[in-house]
Write a structure and sequence with these properties.
With 470 residues, this protein is mainly α. It has one domain: Sodium/glucose cotransporter (Up-down Bundle), CATH 1.20.1730. The protein has helices at 10-28, 34-39, 46-57, 60-63, 66-73, 76-81, 83-103, 108-116, 118-151, 155-203, 207-212, 227-243, 245-252, 257-288, 297-300, 307-345, 351-372, 379-393, 395-403, 409-429, 439-469. Helix 12 packs across helix 18 and helix 16 crosses helix 17. InterPro entries: Na/Glc_symporter_sf, Na/solute_symporter, Sodium:Solute_Symporter.
Length: 470
């Protein structure tokens, strides 16, 4: 089937954008201070919290990278396996959520400082900003893909428009407005995908016809990937989710533990619908449009379906991208405000000043994200890089705070350094040997360093104490 642009689909995105901006402006008038801006006054009930967790996690990484690119490039089974890390991560966060709320911190850096000291906070802030700006950048490019598909506009021009929407919605009302737009977007996602799956299978001629039109390797368990390569695609999202500051902030913004638990159960159920749906749609796209960019697979199906259904799916895709982008942008700006500006530049900053600086940092980081996306060839490549920088650099140290009382500052800080350095060396210096994502190397290194340094320094500390006592 020939891929033809359908500019009329842009109306669906335009309507979605107008509604989101309207809600953002309305909710911004309710922001009463910096904490309200960052944590929505800790007032989120289970319905809104579930929607914002869902919408924040499922973004361009899923519809232009993740499940979409995996289904198109390697097959249905490898793509379905991409769902497993998210499900495992949600279950673990369900256990950790009460502890996260008990810390009462704005950022993951604040949690780490309470356990490991100021050095860990500074290092964590840099890691978070580095990773989150990367994540925001490919949301912008994902939106560029959408406008290119629907109108013929260049991806670059579409990326500029996406950047503008993401920056504006994050800046106008913070989590107070982002959570509301996220909730609407989350349920739009679920509804759009439920309608699309049976429709695209019929349009493609049925499941047997789809299977007949894809390479034989696309029906195998790994799609031609080695076991190590497959693990390299699965681990980054798991370790990002387990230490994701965005999720920690949202869980901290709930009304209470009961609301957080109900929201996470709803999130788990929604992901059981969303992830397989994305995989099936992208796999059908491989049959219909075998020569397109893998990142375009899901969005390309919008022009092959009846306009109403294609438009709803396209609006859902836009909602994936915008909500994830503004959430990660807001979170990264929070680190700059509270962990760097408030700690070192202006320790006596008023609440109003902190709010103003957060908005300024949102714009600055948004512009930076727009600049760096041009350095990565695909959404999937920047997704794996950003996830691993965060997952290997922070998650082992963060989880140790909650699950290993013995861990100390030396172990935590050393683990963070080891995770980031290993990732950068593997990806940039060595240029990803054997085509294996750095997570396979970086996470084990970070965990081993955490354990070994903690044990060695603990023994030295006890030995020194024994000498002083004698």
């Amino acid at each position: 089937m020939e891929l033809q642009q359908d500019p009329t689909l842009l109306w669906f995105i335009a309507i979605y954008g107008i509604v989101m901006i309207g809600i953002g402006v309305f909710m911004s008038k309710k922001v009463s201070g910096s904490e309200d801006f960052v944590l929505a006054g800790k007032s989120l009930g289970p319905f809104v919290l579930m929607g914002t967790l869902l919408a924040t996690w499922t973004g361009s990484g899923s519809i232009s990278g993740g499940e979409t690119s995996m289904a198109f490039s390697y097959g249905i089974l490898p793509s379905l396996m991409m769902m497993l890390p998210t499900l495992v991560g949600i279950i673990i966060l369900y256990v950790v959520a009460p502890k996260i709320r008990a810390y009462g911190k704005f950022t993951v850096s604040g949690i780490l400082e309470a356990k490991y000291g100021r050095t860990s906070r500074n290092l964590a802030s840099v890691i978070i900003i580095l990773a989150y700006v990367g994540i925001v950048s490919y949301q912008m490019k994902g939106f560029g893909f959408i406008l290119n598909l629907t109108t013929g506009m260049t991806v670059q021009a579409g990326t500029i428009i996406g950047a503008g929407m993401i920056i504006f919605l994050a800046m106008i009302g913070g989590l107070r407005s982002v959570s509301q737009t996220d909730a609407i977007s989350g349920f739009l996602m679920v509804g759009g995908l439920i309608v699309t799956v049976p429709t695209i299978i019929m349009v493609a001629g049925g499941w047997s016809e789809i299977v007949a039109n894809v390479p034989e390797s696309h029906m195998t368990s790994t799609g031609g990937l080695t076991t190590v390569q497959m693990i390299g695609y699965l681990l980054p999202s798991l370790f990002l989710l387990l230490g994701d500051q965005n999720m920690y902030q949202r869980l901290a913004s709930s009304k209470g533990d009961k609301s957080a638990k109900r929201a996470q159960i709803g999130w788990l159920i929604a992901m059981l619908i969303i992830s397989p749906s994305i995989s099936i749609i992208a796999f059908a796209s491989r049959s219909l449009f075998p020569d397109i960019d893998p990142g375009m697979a899901l969005m390309a199906t919008t022009v092959a379906m009846p306009m109403a259904i294609g438009g709803v799916l396209l609006a859902a895709a836009a909602s994936f991208i915008i909500t994830t982008g503004n959430s990660y942008l807001l979170s990264a700006a929070t680190n700059l405000t509270y962990d760097l500006y408030g700690k070192y530049v202006n320790k006596d900053a008023s609440d109003k000043k902190l709010l103003t600086m957060t908005r300024i940092f949102i714009v600055a980081l948004g512009l930076f994200a727009f600049i760096i996306i041009s350095y990565f060839p695909t959404v999937l490549s920047v997704q794996m890089y950003a996830y691993t920088v965060y997952g290997a650099g922070l998650t082992p140290a963060v989880l140790a705070v909650f699950f290993w009382k013995r861990v100390n500052a030396a172990g935590g800080v050393s683990s963070m350094v080891a995770g980031v350095v290993t990732t950068l060396v593997w990806e940039i210096v060595l240029q990803k040997p054997f085509d294996v994502n750095s997570v396979v190397i970086a996470v084990p290194v970070a965990v081993l360093v955490l354990i070994i340094v903690t044990l060695v320094t603990s023994k030295k500390g006890r030995a020194a104490a024994d000498v002083r006592a004698s």
